[in-house]
Amino acid sequence: MKPDGVAAKAEPSDLDLVRGIKSGDGDAFEKMVQRYHARVYSLSYGVLRNAEDAEEATQDTFLTLYRKIGTFDETKKFFSWFYRVALNQAYSRARRRKPGTAVAIDDFLPKFSSDGHLASPELPDWSGSVEDEVIARELAGRAGEFIADLPAPYRDVIWMYDVEEMATSDIAETLRISIPALKSRLHRARLYVRQRLSEISKRPTQAEAR
Amino acid sequence: MTDWTCRQVILDLLIEYEDGTMPAADRADFERHVEMCPPCVRFLTTYRATGKTLKLLKLEEIPSDLAQSVLAFVRARAGRKA
Question: pTM for the full model?
């Protein structure tokens, strides 16, 4: 407990730390690492699916932060800028490892008949599978692979919104897109992942099981 | 009252229904379609299961020495003390 009359020292804001780093304050950089290393690692791991690569991408991200902090516009939100740096590092590393594998998302969107009905009405309902933790984690792993195959505009949005659970406004600012564009990309990316998960989750229907 | 098609429900309306930004009147029309359309029910439940599955990708364990390894990496490469 602190003695009476001694106010707790407020945590420095991101902008305080940015200014500290710009002026060569090593403590400010260390505080920034402490504040954001877990989020950067989590983001990197999601893209790269490998602990070693994620750690290296995290290191590169902070090195880029240190070297490029002078280009950060202090009127903008720091985390949006930094998240973009981290994404670029992760995707750059992913491209080096596995170049040119983006899927054509339209190939995996639902199909409809000319009167607007679903063209494949006998869809498997695998939603109950996610109640089983083992199966759910296996599906999540596959979903991560499917997301990694998406073109970047879709991959970034679904990752930030559905996995990282970032606020819509933060994602829009980070990616410099409008909210309607964000929603459109998010929905198409979800439709794609849903379709891919449906394809690997085909289970016998109750009628087939009888 | 509007009779939506499956195409409209799935491609145009589903995201607004799920994120709660759809106007009340449209929600009623949306739900009326889904109630009478088993394929859309299955589509909706698997769409929601997809979102639930994706949340499991969020990493909970971070290497305990990561912050120190990042600092050591940057300090070794930065021309001055980071």
Answer: 0.82
Tens of pLDDT, residue by residue over B10-27, are: 999 999 999 999 999 999
Please determine, looking at this structure, whether the domain spanning A14-97 carries the CATH number 1.10.1740.10: yes
Residues of B in contact with A30 (CB under 8 A): 71
Class of A105-209 per CATH? Answer: mainly alpha
A175 vs B: CB within 8 A: no
Per-residue pLDDT reduced to its tens digit, A28-38: 999 999 999 99
Please report the ipTM that was assigned to this predicted complex. 0.87
| Partner-chain contact A127 B63, CB within 8 Å | no
With an 8 Å Cβ cutoff, is A162 touching chain B? yes
Domain boundaries, chain A: 14-97, 105-209
According to the 3-state scheme, what is the secondary structure of chain A?
CCCCCCCCCCCCCHHHHHHHHHCCCHHHHHHHHHHHHHHHHHHHHHHHCCHHHHHHHHHHHHHHHHHHHHHCCCCCCHHHHHHHHHHHHHHHHHHHHCCCCCCCHHHHCCCECCCCCECCCCCCCCHHHHHCHHHHHHHHHHHHHHHHCCCHHHHHHHHHHHHCCCCHHHHHHHHCCCHHHHHHHHHHHHHHHHHHHHHHCCCCCHHHHC
| Residue B1 forms part of a structural domain | no
CA of B14: which chain A residue's CA is closest?
A: A187
